[in-house]
């Protein structure tokens, strides 16, 4: 009887602590995005915040993975494949124009290998993880779920592209964002989303949807303010 009461007490205290931890992380995410909007829209501050862009992306990924529970071989394989396929497609795109179109990266996103920032691989990993989590329980068919996840990523890219060009993340030939970019983005995203679906690891994450919404609002507001 004493053991049961002790276990119940521990559980009752751990549950509020867990939710407090989630709320704290959500507040941190929102504050960082709000500060980022301020920094990017004030011309005097913009150069400093452009330099901080890689750290912002890495911070968001780190905070997200604090709540990831499926640390198994399949998850590590997903990390490697999503990073590798996403990054590889960008290297191919920069050097050949396929599958996205003709573009080049600026210096803002940090260290580059084969003229592509390594951070771009992290970006692919993060966006697939966030958008895939939306549908992983709601839709049973892997191909439909992968298509919807890829579509969410394309819609987010529609918000990202104009901001990225203005902030010198990358630039397009003739300053025009081609339709091929969004078609190629969907195709690569679909492949990685399908891998995400097929690999068996715990895909539930309490921060995923909240972080995705924050990212969408962040780029939406920057589209309006820049």
Secondary structure class reads: mainly alpha
| SSE series | HHHEEEHHEHH
**In the residues, how many domains can be counted?**
1
The neighbouring-strand order within the major sheet is 1-4
Distance between the termini: 63 Å
Poorly predicted residue ranges: 1-14
> How would a crystallographer describe the biggest sheet?
2 strands, antiparallel
Put simply, the count of helices is 7
InterPro entries: CruF-like
Organism: Belliella baltica (strain DSM 15883 / CIP 108006 / LMG 21964 / BA134)
Keywords: Membrane, Transmembrane, Transmembrane helix
Protein name: Putative membrane protein
Plain-language structure description:
Residues 1-14 have low confidence and may be disordered. This protein has one domain (2-225). The radius of gyration is 19 Å and the shape is globular. With 226 residues, it is mainly α. 73% of the residues lie in helices and 4% in strands. β2 and β3 form a beta hairpin. The termini are far apart. The longest helix has 40 residues, at 2-41. It has helices at residues 2-41, 46-66, 73-96, 119-135, 142-166, 179-198, 208-225; strands at residues 103-105, 112-113, 116-117, 170-172. The protein has 7 helices and 4 strands. α3 runs antiparallel to α6 (179-198). It has a two-stranded antiparallel sheet with strand order 1-4. Strands 2-3 form a two-stranded antiparallel ribbon.
Can you give keywords for this protein?
disordered N terminus, globular, 226 residues, two-stranded antiparallel ribbon, mainly alpha
Topology:
Elements: H1 2-41, H2 46-66, H3 73-96, E1 103-105, E2 112-113, E3 116-117, H4 119-135, H5 142-166, E4 170-172, H6 179-198, H7 208-225
Antiparallel strand pairs: 1-4, 2-3
């Amino acid at each position: 009887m004493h053991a049961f009461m002790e276990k119940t007490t521990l559980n009752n205290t751990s549950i509020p602590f867990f939710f407090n931890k989630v709320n704290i992380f959500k507040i941190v995410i929102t504050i960082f995005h709000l500060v980022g909007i301020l920094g990017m829209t004030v011309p005097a501050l913009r150069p400093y915040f452009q330099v901080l862009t890689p750290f912002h992306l890495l911070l968001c990924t780190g905070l997200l993975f604090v709540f990831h529970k499926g640390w198994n071989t399949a998850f590590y394989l997903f990390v490697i494949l999503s990073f590798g396929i996403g990054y590889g497609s960008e290297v191919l795109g920069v050097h050949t124009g396929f599958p996205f179109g003709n573009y080049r990266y600026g210096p803002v996103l940090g260290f580059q290998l084969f003229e592509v920032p390594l951070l771009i691989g992290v970006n692919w990993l993060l966006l697939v993880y966030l958008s895939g989590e939306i549908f992983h329980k709601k839709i049973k068919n892997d191909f439909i779920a992968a298509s919807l996840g890829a579509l969410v990523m394309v819609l987010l890219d529609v918000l990202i592209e104009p901001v990225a060009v203005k902030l010198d993340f990358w630039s397009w030939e003739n300053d025009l964002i081609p339709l091929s970019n969004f078609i190629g983005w969907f195709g690569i995203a679909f492949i990685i989303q399908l891998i995400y679906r097929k690999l068996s690891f715990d895909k539930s994450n309490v921060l995923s949807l909240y972080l995705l919404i924050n990212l969408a609002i962040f780029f939406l507001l920057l589209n309006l303010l820049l």
